[in-house]
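Quick one, tokens below. Sequence please?
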């Protein structure tokens, strides 16, 4: 594939490309935290050149599988990582990433945790953008939906 074709693909999917760029940055940052099995995460990045949509698809499937997860991330609720169960029959980059963070969560300092929360918020933003969702507006709708149930 020549440079012009690569550039055209990038322009067609800027949110997917931004998501993948942030994922690469995130994995590099996880290496600094001495996350176990980071080489598996590195290996998973290899497959991006074959299917650029796969990481964002897996993120939606495993992290954004319900609106409550979205709220937990934006509200930075620690039990989101601690209580997540990933007993998948097949390992994927998203479930592996969350499991590794979960295993290290209590050993991370406040700044390291904040950085992880920010990455997950960025992943949600690019996922939403790719789907044509206004993240702020959608988050408000979800909060209203869940909080109105609590009040009633």
């Amino acid at each position: 594939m020549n440079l012009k074709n690569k550039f055209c693909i990038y322009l067609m999917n800027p949110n997917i490309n931004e998501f993948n760029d942030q994922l690469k940055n995130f994995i590099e940052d996880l290496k600094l935290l001495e996350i176990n099995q980071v080489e598996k995460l590195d290996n998973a990045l290899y497959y991006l050149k074959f299917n650029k949509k796969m990481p964002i698809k897996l993120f939606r499937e495993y992290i954004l599988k319900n609106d409550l997860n979205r709220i937990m991330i934006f509200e930075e609720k620690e039990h989101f990582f601690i209580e997540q169960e990933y007993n998948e029959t097949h390992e994927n980059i998203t479930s592996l990433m969350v499991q590794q963070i979960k295993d290290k969560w209590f050993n991370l300092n406040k700044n390291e945790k904040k950085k992880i929360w920010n990455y997950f918020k960025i992943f949600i933003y690019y996922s939403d953008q790719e789907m044509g969702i206004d993240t702020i507006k959608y988050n408000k709708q979800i909060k209203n939906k869940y909080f109105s149930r609590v009040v009633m």
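The chain has one domain: 13-147. The longest helix spans residues 110-131.
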